[in-house]
């Protein structure tokens, strides 16, 4: 069994129910839905209560940093106590595409880190072309951290490893000349997660199409081959890692 450790069920072209069903048929037994603002985080919390083997994270994406309010932060703190919410995220910094200033993004990120510390929930972190500032802000984090959709080379992997952070690998790891693919062996196996970030970043065999949770099998197969694992062995490893990171119940 595999876990899609980061997906956006509410942005897919099919219903969450159908997406989860298709994933289960492909061998993906658990799906973690990720929030990007208060409204979809609330709906994600509802999904986690309603759908078996679905969990959710609540967060405010850096793309939404400039529109959040103090009421949103209060709502996020309330959501952190909701059944089915297993993480705060995604939160972080995006210096590639976000229209908001670095200062505005960092202010929100620091608030989110503080909330995670108070709620004792792990952090799902978005970092794009902002690695140094991301790591500086995370210096105050006292909870587990995953660097979602990880992009980086030797230096970034080593710093993440030194901090004992989890590393989420999405479909872009399968793309030609991907920098992280060349340094996979530097990542601590006990901190590896696989994800889709669906509907984005479809893995190479499906590139150009909309992604879905079931497609995490392609990313897992690629990484397993690169690291010399059998597919079932790698699935067991990354499933255990996801359970540990998110605090999911043990398999019965």
Automatic annotation (TrEMBL):
One of its GO terms (cellular component) is cytosol. A divalent metal cation 2 binds at residues 126, 148. SUPFAM superfamilies: Metallo-dependent hydrolases. Keywords: Exonuclease, Hydrolase, Metal-binding, Nuclease. It comes from the Bacteria. A divalent metal cation 1 binds at residues 6, 8, 90, 197. InterPro entries: Metal_Hydrolase, TatD-like, TatD/YcfH-like. Pfam families: TatD_DNase (PF01026). One of its GO terms (molecular function) is DNA nuclease activity. This is YchF/TatD family DNA exonuclease. It comes from Rubrobacter tropicus. The lineage of its organism: Bacteria, Bacillati, Actinomycetota, Rubrobacteria, Rubrobacterales.
């Amino acid at each position: 069994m595999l876990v899609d450790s980061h997906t956006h069920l509410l942005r897919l072209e099919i219903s969450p129910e159908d997406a989860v069903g298709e994933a289960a048929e492909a061998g993906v037994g658990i799906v973690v839905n990720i929030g990007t603002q208060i409204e979809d985080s609330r709906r994600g919390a509802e999904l986690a209560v309603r759908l078996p083997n679905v969990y959710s994270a609540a967060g405010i994406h850096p793309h939404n940093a400039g529109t959040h309010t103090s009421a949103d932060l209060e709502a996020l703190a309330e959501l952190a106590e909701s059944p089915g919410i297993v993480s705060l995220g995604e939160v972080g910094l995006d210096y590639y595409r976000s229209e908001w200033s670095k200062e505005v993004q960092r202010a929100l990120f620091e608030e989110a880190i503080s909330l995670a510390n108070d709620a004792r929930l792990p952090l799902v972190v978005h970092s794009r072309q902002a690695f140094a500032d991301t790591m500086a802000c995370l210096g105050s984090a006292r909870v587990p951290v995953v660097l979602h959709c990880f992009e980086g080379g030797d230096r970034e992997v080593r710093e993440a490893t030194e901090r004992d952070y989890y590393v989420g690998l999405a479909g872009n790891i399968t793309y030609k000349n991907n920098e992280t693919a060349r340094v996979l062996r530097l990542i601590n196996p006990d901190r590896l997660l696989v994800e889709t970030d669906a509907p984005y970043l479809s893995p190479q065999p499906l590139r150009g199409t909309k992604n879905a949770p079931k497609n995490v099998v392609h990313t897992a197969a690629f990484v397993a081959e690169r690291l010399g694992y059998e597919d079932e062995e790698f699935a067991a490893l990354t499933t255990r890692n996801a359970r540990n990171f998110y605090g999911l119940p043990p398999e019965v």
